[in-house]
């Protein structure tokens, strides 16, 4: 729903670059989420283990650069998939079903009688004003 809203407004502003802008936003959201996961996992492991030395830190960075990015992504996806097969970010970006709010149509404990047989705007206003 969030991306669909962006798509709607971007298409009104500039339809020729709408898809490009949406893809750019998606990429940035995934990068931001990846950074969040790294920070979250490093903060939990840092508390349980000691900090690496400068030499160890450089070797870790070199090894990470040498890894295949696709394999890193596959490992990441396999670790961050929930029961539905979607990551937390996919769940956040997914459209939520719109459910009608029953309380929007409720008149509370009021009893309908011949004077309140329908919810005309004047009746609704009177009910709201006399509620207290």
Structural summary, described in words:
This protein is mostly helical and 132 residues long. It has 2 domains: 2-93, no CATH class; 103-132, no CATH class. It contains 6 helices and no strands. It has helices at 2-13, 18-48, 54-66, 69-79, 88-93, 121-129. The longest helix is centred in the first third of the chain and has 31 residues, at 18-48. The chain is elongated, with a radius of gyration of 26 Å. It starts with a helix and ends with a helix. The mean pLDDT is 70. Pfam families: Dimer_Tnp_hAT. One of its GO terms (molecular function) is protein dimerization activity. This is HAT C-terminal dimerisation domain-containing protein.
Which characteristics define this entry?
132 residues; mainly alpha; 2 domains; RNaseH-like_sf; HATC_C_dom
What is this structure, in a nutshell?
Residues 101-131 form the HAT C-terminal dimerisation domain. The protein is mainly alpha-helical and 132 residues long.
Topology:
Layout: H1 2-13, H2 18-48, H3 54-66, H4 69-79, H5 88-93, H6 121-129
Helix pairs in contact: 1-2
Instruction: Tell me the count of domains.
Output: 2
Q: Radius of gyration from the CA trace?
A: 26 Å
Helical content (DSSP H or I, runs of 4+)? 55-70%
Q: Structural class, judged by helices and strands?
A: mainly alpha
Strand fraction equals under 5%
Number of helices: 6
Mean pLDDT: 70
Looking at the structure, what is the overall shape?
elongated
Major sheet characteristics: none
Order of helices and strands: HHHHHH
Total beta-strand segments = 0
Gap between N and C termini: 38 Å
Q: Which stretches are poorly predicted, pLDDT < 50 over at least 5 residues?
A: none
